Amino acid sequence: MRRHRYLLSLSFAVASIAIIGVVVLTHPGCSTRPPVTGTIRHSDARNQRLMALAAEEAGAIKDVDARLTRQLNFADQQIKRGWPRDARVTLTGAAGTLTNEGKALNDHARLSGWVSVSELSRGAGDAEAGLRAVDQAVGELRKIADEAERCQYVMGLANELQYLKGPHDAAALLSEAGPWARQMDDVPERRRALMAFASALFNLDDFTPGQGVLRQDDDATWRSDMLLALATPQVDMGAHRAAEPREMDVSSGSLYWGKQLKFQDVFQGQSKSQTQEK
């Protein structure tokens, strides 16, 4: 009888301990989970997902310029933070913006948009997307009816072409632009453009096409003077030594001529494109 009572008491004690344990484990004040809070708890995975959601929402912005600018900046951040797959998705959205609504942008923003997609696609390890983008940029350039205006974008586009397709394609565009520059009425400005295109060709060791570009100006004396200047490094007479070759100034213009098309110059860190036309 005593043994029976002892076992009943022991069973009751064990049951009580179990119930207390359940209460302790389930009581809100004793939970190991963090509290519900409106302050974000950062983790790499959570940050990555939030950035992807932000890029997705950017695709719904009505203002085409603002939408494209934000998409490109999000892709840039995704690349820098080590999320290239997400960047490719965002860049696909940017390319869609340019394809479907690019006509709402001015020529500068549209061409820089395609060059930026190409440039960032290279950074995201997607050369095929870069090639498609730079081909689109060349097509958009040739659609500009005013040949003199086309010249503004040749240097920037040739630069991106050489990275994706090589110097041959860059040189072909520079050579094609020579006759376009001839349409420029402002003689000093035309000569600055011709010097820039020819110098770029000479840097690619394409001497005959470079000379052909200079011959778009009819003044043989000017052509001879410019070639002599290009062949002569700047000399520091005081030190009696040749200095490093400098960017030549031709009628107060440097050998980079035209409007910049790089992402960092037009879109990076901006809310809308920083273009030179309205």
3D structure, described in words:
By secondary structure, the protein is mainly α. 65% of the residues lie in helices and 1% in strands. It has 13 helices and two strands. The protein has helices at residues 2-26, 44-58, 64-80, 84-101, 107-123, 127-143, 147-150, 154-164, 167-181, 187-203, 207-214, 220-231, 263-266, and strands at 235-236, 241-242. It has a two-stranded antiparallel sheet with strand order 1-2. It is elongated and about 115 Å long. The protein starts with a helix and ends in a 12-residue tail after the last helix. Mean pLDDT is 85; it is low at 235-254.
Topology:
Layout: H1 2-26, H2 44-58, H3 64-80, H4 84-101, H5 107-123, H6 127-143, H7 147-150, H8 154-164, H9 167-181, H10 187-203, H11 207-214, H12 220-231, E1 235-236, E2 241-242, H13 263-266
Antiparallel strand pairs: 1-2
Helix pairs in contact: 2-3, 3-4, 3-5, 4-5, 5-6, 5-8, 6-8, 8-9, 9-10, 9-11, 10-11
